[in-house]
Amino acid sequence: MIRTVPVGLGDRAYDVVIGTGMIDKAGEHVLPFLSKRRRCAVVTDANVGEHHVERLSVSLEKAGAAVDVIVLPPGEETKSFEGLAHLSDQLLALNLERGDMIVAFGGGVIGDLAGFAAAIYKRGVDFIQIPTTLLAQVDSSVGGKTAIDTPRGKNLIGAFHQPRLVLADLDVLATLPARELACGYAEVIKYGLLGDFEFFEWLEKNVHAVLERDTQALVRAVGRSVEMKAEIVAEDEKEAGRRALLNLGHTFGHAIEAEMGFGDALKHGEAVGVGMAQAFRFSAAQGLCPAQDAVRAVAAIKAAGLPTTLAEVRSQPFGADALIAHMGQDKKAEGGALTFVLVRRIGEAFVAKGVDPAPLRAFLLTEGATG
Ligand SMILES: NC(=O)c1ccc[n+]([C@@H]2O[C@H](COP(=O)([O-])OP(=O)(O)OC[C@H]3O[C@@H](n4cnc5c(N)ncnc54)[C@H](O)[C@@H]3O)[C@@H](O)[C@H]2O)c1
Ligand SMILES: O=C(O)C(=O)C[C@@H](O)[C@H](O)[C@H](O)COP(=O)(O)O
Ligand SMILES: [Zn+2]
Fold it and tell me: Where is the 3-dehydroquinate synthase N-terminal domain (predicted)?
C-alpha cells in the first residue's frame, strides 16, 4: 500500500509518500533527488539507529548512494544549540558539500534539528525527511518548520526549510513505545479538533485501533492528517494567517514545556494534549464555544491516555505569571499582544489576536495555577 500526498508549494513542491515497507524501498525514492556524486548523510538518534538504520543504509547503498550515518543522543535535549553545534561539526567533518543530501531519519527532534542544520549548513543544503514516530509522520516532517529550543522557549531559533521528499513507513511504528504513540495521537486528533468534525468522530471510535497500530486505522489517521497539513501549508507556508490553526493547543502547551525544561518528564505531544484541553476550556469559559464541546474534546484526548490538566503534569502548581511570560515569547504574538488558537466548536478553530491577559490569568487560576 502506498499513498502519495502532494504539498503544492510551486518550485519547492514535494510529495509525502505514506506506506508500508518503505524503508527497504527508500533507495529508489531518494535516488532521483541526489546529485551526481550521490552522497548523503543520514542523521538519526540512538533508538532509531538501533532498530532501523542498517536497513535504510543498505537500501540507499543498493541504489548507488554513498552513505554516512550520524547518530545523536535521543530526546528533546538534543534539539538545542549544543545539539546543533555538535551536528554541524559532524557534517563538516564529513566534508558534506552543498550538493549533497541530509536525510533526517527519526522523530520530530531529529527532523527539526537536522532540517535546521540543513537550512544553515554552507548556507543551505537539501534534505529529506524519513519520519519514524507517529508524531513526525503526521506533523513535523511536513511543512518545513525547523528549529531548536532554548531555555527561553520552544522552537525560538529556526527557519522555514522545506524537505525535498517525505517518506513515511508505517511499519517502523512497530518499535515505537506506547507513550510515544499517544504523543503522536495528540497531533492527529488536533486535525479533527481544528477543522474536521467527521475525522474527530472517526477518531473517537477508532482511538484504540490507532494506538494498537492497526494498519488500516494508521493509513486513515496518517493519511487524513497529512492531507490536512499539506493543504494548509500550501495555502500559507510561512504562517501569515491560516497556518496558525495548526498551533491549536500550542500556546498553552509550549509554555508548560518551557516551564518543565524540555526533557523526558513532559513530551511535546503530552503538552499539546493539555494545551488543547485548555484551549477548549478557555474558549468555553469565554462563551466562544459550547461547554459540552469542551467536555467531549477533553474526553477524546483523555481516551488516548494523554494528560489534559496541569495537575497531571506536575504536582507542584505552575505559576500563572510564569506561564503568561512564556506565552509572550510565542511566535504568534503581535505588538506585544497574545495570539491564541481558540474554538467555536469541535472542528472549527480560529485565530484570536489581542487576547486580554486578565481573563487568561483568571482562567489559569481556575486551572490550578497559582497567582
Ligand atoms: N516542525 C514541526 O512542524 C513540528 C510539529 C510537531 C512537533 N514538532 C517537534 O517534534 C518534537 C517531538 O517529536 P517526537 O514526538 O517524534 O519525539 P522524538 O523525536 O524525541 O521521538 C520520541 C522518542 O521515540 C524514539 N523513536 C523514534 N522513532 C522510533 C521508532 N520507530 N522505534 C523506536 N523508538 C523510536 C526516539 O528515539 C525518542 O526517544 C518536538 O521537539 C516538537 O516541537 C515539530
Ligand atoms: O506546522 C505548524 O505550523 C505547526 O504549528 C505544527 C505544530 O504541531 C508544531 O509543534 C510546530 O513546531 C509548532 O510551531 P511553532 O511555530 O509554534 O514553534
Ligand atoms: Zn506540535
Answer: 70-181
**Over the stretch 46-90, which tens digit does the pLDDT of each residue have?**
999 999 999 999 999 999 999 999 999 999 999 999 999 999 999
The pLDDT confidence band at residue 1, using thresholds 50, 70 and 90, is confident
Which residue has the least CA distance to atom 14 on ligand 2? 247
Interface ipTM: 0.99
Residue with cell 500559507: 236
Q: Which atom of ligand 1 is nearest to the CA of 76?
A: 20
Asked if residue 243 has its Cβ within 6 Å of ligand 2, the reply is: yes
Is the CB of residue 91 below 6 angstroms from any atom belonging to ligand 2? no
Mark out the alpha helices in the chain (DSSP H runs). 26-30, 46-48, 54-62, 81-93, 108-120, 134-135, 178-195, 197-211, 215-235, 250-260, 268-285, 291-302, 310-313, 320-327, 357-366
Q: Which domains does the chain have, with CATH numbers?
A: 2-175 (3.40.50.1970), 178-367 (1.20.1090.10)
Q: For residue 228, what are the β-bridge partners? A: none
